[in-house]
Specification:
The complex is a heterodimer of chains A (348) and B (353). Chain A is an alpha/beta fold. Chain A folds into 2 domains: 153 residues, Rossmann fold (3-Layer(aba) Sandwich), CATH 3.40.50; 145 residues, Rossmann fold, CATH 3.40.50.2300. Helices cover 49% and strands 17% of the residues of chain A. Chain A has a 6-stranded parallel beta sheet, with helices on both faces. Chain A has a 6-stranded mixed beta sheet with strand order 7-6-8-9-10-12, with helices on both faces. By secondary structure, chain B is an all-alpha fold. Chain B has a single domain, classed as Orthogonal Bundle (ABC transporter involved in vitamin B12 uptake, BtuC). Chain B has 13 helices and 4 strands. In chain B, the strands form 2 sheets. Chain B has a two-stranded antiparallel ribbon. Chain B has a two-stranded antiparallel sheet with strand order 2-3. In chain B, a hairpin with a 2-residue loop joins β2 and β3. The longest helix of chain B has 43 residues. The chains are: A alpha/beta (348), B mainly alpha (353). At the A-B interface, α1, β2, α3 and α4 of A face α1, α2, β4, α12 and α13 of B.
Chain lengths: 348, 353
């Protein structure tokens, strides 16, 4: 009986594996068919989110134009706890003999061996989006496979929010001494820090030029369920009159709270970052039923993917390459539909 | 445990049989994954697998002692990561080897693990809480307390960083290309096997798991040895943190989510009885190995843009294996009970003659 069960167990495992195998093989074949010159492996910080889907579309378009196959993978969520699974994805790319270059944004440290291996194999690595975690602290001295980066300039983009948002405050007579501005920063990675700093420095400088001093309160929260909402509550208690949200994740937690408790938050002015359905609905409401979302900055996700793969291909073609900075685009209720048509604003 | 008792001999025999089954399954899985994707056996991938394997194996070794008493420890995952977060914050470690005092993290991590383990032990043995509840509490407490302390020290989020290259890696993960973590696992396995089978501590732990009341009546200080089992589990959770941090130098408090379940699953797959009383240290290691092979192998097999998520398939396959392994344990017990009943009339006949 026991032997039978053991045998069954092995069988179940074997069958489940065989069931998976054809899908993988088919995909390999499909890749080989389109991979005239080889494969560019794109490993992102996520895969299913609309932002990454737009990046993927851009990456695939660039690959197709130049005759390369593009594989696109990313972990379940953008959190350090998924470093293990992301490392396995990098390992897979390194082990694939068709891989000619890797386009990479890491969610944590722990890629030292993989980056060294890429260097030893002569595979160029393009950093994109937030690039290598912690400024590439993973790179072993003398074995740096990175050749350039393609990303939104987050500090500059934070500054774009500050500039436009301050112009709104000024136009509406709110740019006064002691006006309280809160920031909910989505995490302590470079992206979060840069956006918050760009916004803070930008709005302070703009106010100073008018002889106005603002009060700023920064709430740094981790990407855990409910954390951003706590940031919102803390800022409300502090008496915030305006709040900047540094990414879509923050907006997605803040928006339901603001719309469910319309009266509580009615007098706070909001501004955001990134895109998504919540920001679309919020901005289109134009302050009629709940607090006003003045505007937001969208990253050009499609072009981030497109330019990153293009940079890798340029290097493979032996051309000189340089870092590419992708600008952010300020949008309000007026131009959001136009940006949606251009693939810069996505719903997701 | 003496092997003179035929019942124990039978149980030891079936445990080694289960080990053989696991080894064969591991070899079969390795071969299948290799056939699906030849890169599975590449040196880079094997090094990568050992990075995942070592912390889980060490967690599982520790919790084997608790499961052998008939208990469970749900706190090991958060104790492991919480200790690392706490030590990183106290010692102010960073991505550069010069940041903070890296060496000091080792004693802090180990002491923190041990303290949470002792807390579990006291709650279970002295306060008579059900192990599930006690360790669930410690799981939440360890997560909350370590995160709050590190937030207070760092004045930002609880995420911490350790240096990604340097002596820490050379000692715990990668010594110039050699997966040094495996040597540590081997040493710890031998130590655990000796403690479990050759020392008073191990024998008493097994006796408590087999029949707590009988153990108490025969003069064993049950509370003391239960506390010891949970302390070992906590200490090993701390040790696992060292290897986890060396492989994943950036971590937040959520990094340990679910680690305890994989570790406990490894122990059950390895043939340690769910109700205590019998434990297989080798089985625990083999169980962890199977889980890592499945996780990594499925990831490689489904690598090329497949629509199916390897992570989700891994959950399903792991679930099937754990249930199957526990079913084996139940059947083993049933057949042992049958031997006992069968042997009664035989004994009676013997006494008649």
């Amino acid at each position: 009986m026991k032997k039978l069960i053991a045998l069954l167990l092995v069988l179940v495992m074997a069958v489940s594996l065989v069931a998976c195998a054809p899908a993988a093989n088919n995909d390999n074949n499909k890749d080989d068919a389109s991979a005239g010159k080889g494969t560019i492996a794109v490993i992102a910080k996520g895969e299913t989110h609309a932002f990454w889907q737009a990046v993927k579309a851009g990456a695939e378009a660039a690959g197709k134009e130049a005759g390369y196959a593009v594989t696109f993978r990313g972990p379940t969520a953008e959190s350090e706890e998924y470093v293990n699974s992301q490392r396995e994805m990098v390992q897979t790319a390194l082990n694939n003999p068709d891989t000619k270059a890797i386009v990479l944004a890491t969610i944590g440290l722990g890629f030292t061996d993989e980056l060294t291996s890429a260097f030893d194999k002569g595979l160029p690595v393009v950093e994109f989006d937030s690039g290598l975690y912690s400024g590439g602290a993973d790179i072993t001295e003398g074995k740096d496979p990175t050749i350039g980066s393609v990303a939104t300039d987050n500090k500059k983009a934070g500054g774009v929010v500050a500039e436009n948002f301050y112009a709104y405050l000024k136009a509406n007579g709110k740019a006064v001494n002691g006006f309280k501005v809160g920031i909910i920063q989505h995490d302590s990675t470079a992206t979060g820090i840069d956006r918050a700093a760009g916004f803070k420095e930008g709005i302070e400088a703009a106010a100073k030029a008018d002889g106005v001093t603002l009060e700023i309160n920064l709430q740094v929260k981790a990407n855990n369920a409910g954390e951003y909402k706590l940031g919102l509550t803390a800022l409300k208690d502090w008496g915030a009159q305006a709040i900047f949200m540094t990414n879509e994740g923050v907006v997605n937690e803040v928006f339901p709270e603001v719309s469910d408790n319309a009266d509580t938050y009615k007098d706070i002015l909001f501004c955001g970052f990134d895109a998504g359905t919540n920001q679309y609905d919020w901005i289109k409401d134009a302050g009629k039923t709940y607090a006003l979302l003045v505007g937001s900055v969208a990253q050009d996700s499609y072009n981030i993917g497109y330019e990153a793969v293009k940079l890798a291909i340029s290097k493979l073609d032996g051309k000189d390459v340089a870092d590419v900075g992708i600008g952010g685009q300020w949008y309000t209720a007026d131009n959001i539909d136009a940006l949606k048509d251009q693939n810069i604003f996505y719903m997701g | 445990m003496s092997n003179k008792n035929p019942l124990l001999k039978k149980s030891a025999g079936s445990s080694s049989k289960q080990n053989i089954v696991i080894i064969l399954a591991a070899i079969a899985l390795f071969a299948i994954f290799y056939l699906i994707n030849n890169n599975f056996a590449s040196s880079g991938n094997v090094l990568n697998m050992t990075k995942s394997f070592v912390p889980y194996a060490i967690l599982a070794l520790g919790v084997t002692f608790v499961i052998a008493t008939g208990g469970i420890d749900l706190s090991i995952g958060t104790v492991c990561i919480g200790s690392a977060v706490l030590a990183g914050a106290i010692c102010r470690t960073g991505v550069s080897a010069e940041d903070g005092t890296l060496w000091l993290t080792i004693p802090i991590i180990l002491v923190s693990g041990l303290v949470f383990g002792l807390l579990n032990g006291v709650l279970v043995a002295k306060c008579k809480l059900a192990p599930f509840i006690a360790t669930l509490g410690t799981m939440l407490v360890s997560r909350g307390v370590t995160a709050v302390i590190s937030e207070a020290i760092r004045e930002t989020s609880s995420a911490v960083k350790y240096p990604p290259t340097g002596w820490f890696q050379k000692v715990f993960t990668n010594l110039n290309g050699f997966p040094i973590g495996l040597v540590w696992v081997l040493v710890l396995t031998i130590i655990c096997a000796v403690v479990m089978y050759k020392t008073k501590v191990g024998r008493y732990i097994l006796a408590i798991g087999s029949n707590e009341e009988a153990a108490r009546l025969s003069g064993i200080n049950v509370d003391k040895y239960k506390i010891t089992a949970y302390a070992i589990s906590g200490l090993f959770a701390g040790m696992a943190a060292l290897f986890y941090v060396a492989a994943n130098p950036s971590l937040n408090i959520a990094s340990g989510n679910g680690m305890e379940l994989d570790a406990v699953a490894s122990v059950y797959i390895g043939g340690t009885s769910t109700t205590g009383g019998s434990a297989s240290i080798i089985g625990t290691i083999l169980g962890s190995m199977i889980l890592v092979i499945i996780r990594n192998g499925l990831n490689l097999a489904l690598s090329s843009g497949s629509v199916v998520s390897a992570t989700n398939i891994t959950y399903a396959v792991t679930g099937v294996i754990v249930v199957g392994a526990v079913m084996l344990d139940v059947l083993k017990k049933k057949s042992a009970a049958k031997v006992k009943i069968d042997s009664i009339p035989a004994k009676k006949e013997e006494s008649k003659s």
